[in-house]
Structures are given as C-alpha cells and as structure tokens.
UniProtKB/TrEMBL annotation:
InterPro entries: Ig-like_dom, Ig-like_dom_sf, Ig-like_fold, Ig_C1-set, MHC_class-I_related, MHC_I-like_Ag-recog, MHC_I-like_Ag-recog_sf, MHC_I/II-like_Ag-recog. It comes from Canis lupus familiaris (Dog). This is CD1a8 protein splice variant. Its main location: membrane. The gene is canCD1a8. One of its GO terms (cellular component) is plasma membrane. The keyword Signal applies. One of its GO terms (biological process) is immune system process. SMART domains: IGc1 (SM00407). Pfam families: C1-set (PF07654), MHC_I_3 (PF16497). The chain crosses the membrane at residues 208-230. Residues 112-192 form the Ig-like domain.
Length: 236
C-alpha cells in the first residue's frame, strides 16, 4: 500500500509518464518526521521534494495536502487527489498514533525511596527538617511537608536532580521551632505509587536532658557500685 502511495504521488508530480527517456533522473523524496513529546502528545511533519524544490506539505493534524507549486496537483481530479490524501493520512497520522500507544503501555516507572533528616540549624531553638526522595522515574513528583492534612506553606522545594542511572532525586526542607516539630510528616506522590501516597512521620529526637538521664546516670550508679564492691573486697 505504501508503495502504491509513492507511485501515485510521483505520477501526481510529474503529470504522467515522460515521453523523453533521455532526460536525467529526477530525485523525488518524501520526508516524514514523527515526534513523541510525552505519553499523550505526538506531532507529525511531512514534505515532498522534487530535487531541491519542495512541492508538497501536509497538515499534521488532518493529513490534508498543501500544494506549494501551481502544477503540484498534476492532471488529477479532486476526487483522485482526496483518495491519495487519505492513503497518506493512514501512514502519517494513524499508524504513528498506534505505535505511540504501545510506547505508552511500555513506559517505565520506578518507585521512590524516601527518608528524613535534619539540616543546618536555621537559628536557636529551631530545626530544619529535610525530606529526601530518590530513585524515582519518571521525573514529575509532588513532595510536601504536612501537619495532618494541612500543607505547610513554608516547605522549600529544591531542584529535581538526575542520577547517573537516569532516575531522579529531590529534597524538600521546612524550618520550624523545635517544640513544634512533633506531628509533622512528609508526603510523597508519584505515578509509580498507584495513587497511594508515601507518608513519613517526623519522630522527635530525645533532648539532651533525657540522654543524660538514660545514659549518664546509670553509668554513674554502675561506677559507684563497682567502687563499693572494691572497697568491701579490699577490707576483707
């Protein structure tokens, strides 16, 4: 069918068979470019050339021919031209769209990994909470610090950066008073998660006073017990 189209277009351009076989060969080219921009958008561009002269183009939405020279229609009737145009439409619009649908079905998706940390302190009595999201594909991702269902407008989103393996990395930070950090969480939305958000809850680090009570005091008591046992052993 495609061969038939090329023959029809060549005849259209030349207006029939040449009666002079001594003429030099004429270069006739058809150029079709299909661009796949994303999972839902394609664009088709086409043109026909006689040596270095462009003779035809066509509308990339409807497949309609554009006749760029006064003689580009040849000796064909409008009905015959419409038939050729419809044949080209099949290959320039419908076939690439079908191929594009298969590409969309094969599209790779990778789930992100996420973790929380603290960054440099923004000031006395304040914390900088950082939510790290890494290893996801494709690039679009939504990450936000939350308190319950309320978005924290102070969330600061960094740039989405590429990894060497083609996946992506992002971090989102939030500056808060240390006493207000409890109850915060980081929420991640990505196409690979199947509509189920990833939620990481911030766990308040123990205060220095609690660390002292839990670690230092038992060590002091243990040292005292050892000293008392040593004194008793020495007395005997």
């Amino acid at each position: 069918m495609l061969f038939l189209q090329l023959v029809l277009l060549a005849v259209l351009l030349l207006g029939g068979d040449s009666e002079d076989d001594s003429q030099e060969p004429i270069s006739f080219r058809i150029i079709l470019t299909t661009s796949f921009y994303n999972s839902s958008s394609t664009q088709n561009q086409g043109s026909a050339w006689l040596d270095e002269l462009q003779t035809h183009g066509w509308n990339n939405k409807t497949g309609a021919f554009r006749y760029l020279q006064p003689w580009s229609k040849g000796n064909f009737s409008n009905e015959e031209l419409l038939e050729v145009q419809n044949l080209f439409y099949t290959y320039t619009i419908r076939s690439p769209s079908t191929f594009h649908n298969h590409i969309r079905d094969w599209q790779l998706e990778l789930r992100p990994e996420a973790w929380l940390s603290t960054g440099p302190s923004p000031g006395s009595g304040h914390l900088r909470l950082v939510c790290h999201v890494s290893g996801f594909y494709p690039k679009p991702v939504w990450v936000m610090w939350m308190r319950g269902e309320q978005e924290q407008t102070g969330s600061q989103r960094g740039d989405v950066l590429p990894h060497a393996d083609g996946t992506w990395y992002l971090q989102v930070s939030l500056d808060v008073k240390a006493k207000e950090a409890a109850g915060l969480s980081c929420r991640v939305r990505h196409s690979s998660l199947g509509g189920q958000d990833m939620v990481l809850h911030w766990e308040q680090l123990p205060s220095m006073g609690l660390v002292f009570l839990v670690v230092i005091v038992p060590l002091v008591l243990l040292a005292g017990l050892v000293w008392w046992l040593w004194k008793r052993w020495k007395a005997h």
